[in-house]
Structures are given as structure tokens and as C-alpha cells.
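Marked as duplicate of an earlier ticket. Keeping the data here for the record.
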Amino acid sequence: MAAGASGSDGSVIERSWETPDAFAVIFDRYADDIHRYIARRLGSDTADDLMAETFVIAFQRRRRYDLSHAHARPWLYGIATNLIGRHRREEARRLRALSRMAALPPGREDSGPEDAVTERLGAGGTDGTLAGALAELPARYRDVLLVIAWGELDYEEAAQALGVPVGTVRSRLHRARTRLRRALGGPARTTSTASRKETDHG
């Protein structure tokens, strides 16, 4: 979202140091995006709480924000992803439930508290095999993949959000895609010479 007439995110956050109410601009700019990202990973009910917690934490840490970063999106996605990390089992259960439900014959889908699990995981939808494959990814790979795919961050922004070097983002993303290709029955080849040279930094 564009910074708009109120100035860059960095300038708004700096202003909020002395005028706390100014931080509402950051909430208005990014709350919907953060909620949507968390909801796709954990469901709408959990997203309500974690989106609010994301902005409470951001507000509390606003004096530590690096003002050289004009845009706060990576910072906020990093906070949200850390909070999602407390719900790893819930996320994996949700993905596995989607995988099981997708395998049921039409009309056999269960209803109830897990209904939200039927939300589409991608803009074009997904199937149970993909959901199951996402559930089996190591958390560090899933975080990189989804903060890029669903948070729409570029590699540098993802690195900032997750607190890792850009090379690590590239490596983990490559490994995540390779594992997904295998799970979906596709070739597990590397996509480029550069990919083959990348190492996993953790």
C-alpha cells in the first residue's frame, strides 16, 4: 500500500514516538494485509487475535524500528510470522485437515469448527495434495515460501522480515519448492545453476 499523504512508514513511526496516536496510520495501512496473511495460515478466528497482537507488539517496539526502512510491511510480517510460530502444530493440523477433506467424495465434507480449513490456500485455489505437502515442510521453509507467496514480499523484504540473509531466503525457497514438486509428483530438479550452488544457512 502506498505511503500516501501522511508520509513514509518510517516517518509516521518516528512521529509516533512523541505522538502515539500517529501509529494508527500504520494500522490503517496494513491491518487488512496482515489479517489476510495470518488467516490463510491459521484461520480467521486465530487471525483476529494475532493481527491485533502484531500491532500491539509493533507499537511497543516502535522506537526500535530502523528508520532507514521506508516501508514497514516486512517488519510487520516478521512480527506476524513469529507469532504464527507459536501455532506450528495448529497450522500443520489445519493443512492436514484440508488435505483429508479434499480427499473425501463430494458431499462428505465435515462441518463444524474446522470449516475455515477449506479456505483456498492460493489465489487460484489448491488441492489436498498441496496442503499435505505444505504441512510436511520444515517450518523455516514454509515461512519463507508463504511470506513470499501470500505476504507478497520480495527476497530482500522476506530476509528483513525473517531476520536472515537474502541467500538463506533463496536457499530455503528453492528447497521448499523442490520438496513440493516431489510431493506433487513432479521432477525434483534444480531450476538453475545458481540454485545448485546455493547452500542452506539454516
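See parent ticket for discussion. The longest helix spans residues 24-42.
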